[in-house]
UniProtKB/TrEMBL annotation:
<dbReference type="Pfam" id="PF13343">
    <property type="entry name" value="SBP_bac_6"/>
</dbReference>
<dbReference type="InterPro" id="IPR026045">
    <property type="entry name" value="Ferric-bd"/>
</dbReference>
<protein>
    <submittedName>
        <fullName>Extracellular solute-binding protein family 1</fullName>
    </submittedName>
</protein>
<keyword id="KW-0732">Signal</keyword>
């Protein structure tokens, strides 16, 4: 659904103020126009497709509207949970000959790279320092990563009461001792799909598919990372693989859970972190406004806002002033990743994975 943050607010205020002198039919017609997305767009408007949850993205986009010294509107489109990134990317692909989207704000990275490989993204001079991690910025300057989440293990401390018994590696999803007592999201969407594309690049295609088949037989497979975190907090399983934001929500709600950053030993690959990404569409209808908004968002201040929120996202910038609550006191070894390589041959890879999880 498309909506303009300022224009909807302005029209609702007008309706409220003048209701006594306005017929119900007229008000209903105006509401229909507003909420169907039929709002006039000027050269200063900017259309954002956002896979980041509306509750987190909306206040930041609204702050951008207030920050400029001229009238501008952000027209946002958000999609549904679990398949939202894929849905938005498919819409961008459908609209490639007549783009409607100016800026794509993805809450992960793999499908942003897919758009890069399709040649649908514009180059941008991202306002980041020269030491920005290489896996957080594209080789051709078409996208940039910020405000990451990590792929972590969430453990129910009533079912596993000793930290020495906590699982410490993603690979333990394959271990028969955890059969039917661990969980993972179906690896077809979101960060779980990204995670296994990265592991395919590290392990090789056949080994990765074999491991996914073993996990399908060994673990409880759920629709999304949120459902995994909730299954663990409810005691349905002892532990699961999820994202830091979903794990933090369960912990903040007071459930008996702990978060483990996996694969920290020297012979292990490290914990995978998956950033938000920004990308401007090639031939965007409002390129000037899109570049301006991209620069506004790619700042330590935006990362701090996301770090302070309930999703506790982890800033990439060294200038960030707010350490997210999810990070432990000890430094984390992050997995070294080439996301551009991980996204190669996505369609055939996704088809193979879908075949394994067709009955899950």
């Amino acid at each position: 659904m498309l909506f303009s943050l300022t224009q909807i607010t302005r029209r609702l205020k007008t309706i409220h103020t003048g209701f006594e002198g306005t017929t119900l039919i007229t008000c209903s017609l105006l509401l229909t126009v507003v909420f169907c997305g039929c709002v006039p767009r000027t050269e200063e408007d900017v259309v954002v497709y956002s896979a980041l949850d509306e509750e987190f993205a909306y206040p930041i986009l609204e702050a951008f509207e207030r920050s400029v010294d001229y009238e501008t509107s952000v027209v946002g489109k958000f999609d549904v949970e679990s398949t939202k990134t894929v849905g938005l990317v498919n819409q961008i692909l459908t609209e490639q000959n007549q783009p409607r989207c100016d800026l794509f704000w993805n809450n992960e990275i793999l499908h942003t790279v897919r758009l890069q490989k399709e040649g649908l993204l514009a180059r941008h001079d991202w306002p980041v320092p020269t030491d920005w991690p290489r896996d957080m910025i594209s080789s051709d300057s078409t996208w940039c990563g910020f405000a990451a989440r990590a792929r972590v293990l969430i453990v129910n401390t009533k079912l596993i009461d000793s930290s020495e018994q906590f699982p410490q590696s993603v690979a333990e999803l394959l271990d028969e001792k955890w059969k039917d007592n661990c969980a993972m999201a179906r690896p077809l969407f979101g960060t779980t799909a990204t995670h296994w594309a990265v592991l395919r690049d590290r392990l090789g295609r056949e080994v990765a598919l074999e491991q996914l088949q073993t996990i399908a037989d060994n673990a409880l497979i759920l629709s999304g990372n949120k459902q995994v975190a909730q299954a663990v907090s409810a005691g349905r399983v002892a532990w699961g693989l999820t994202d830091t934001d979903d794990a933090m929500i369960e912990k903040e709600l007071g459930y008996p859970v702990e978060i483990v950053f996996p694969d920290q030993q020297p012979d292990q690959p490290g914990t995978l972190r998956i950033p938000n990404t920004l990308a401007i569409l090639k031939n965007a209808p409002h390129p000037v406004a899109a570049h301006r908004l991209a620069n506004y968002l790619m700042t330590p201040q935006t990362e701090d806002r996301l770090a302070m929120g309930p999703s506790s996202q982890m800033p990439i910038s060294k200038e960030s002033k707010f350490p997210p609550a999810v990070l432990p006191d000890t430094p984390i070894r992050w997995m070294k990743v080439d996301f551009e390589t991980a996204a190669e041959n996505w369609d055939s890879w996704a088809a193979d994975v879908a075949q394994i999880y067709a009955q899950q």
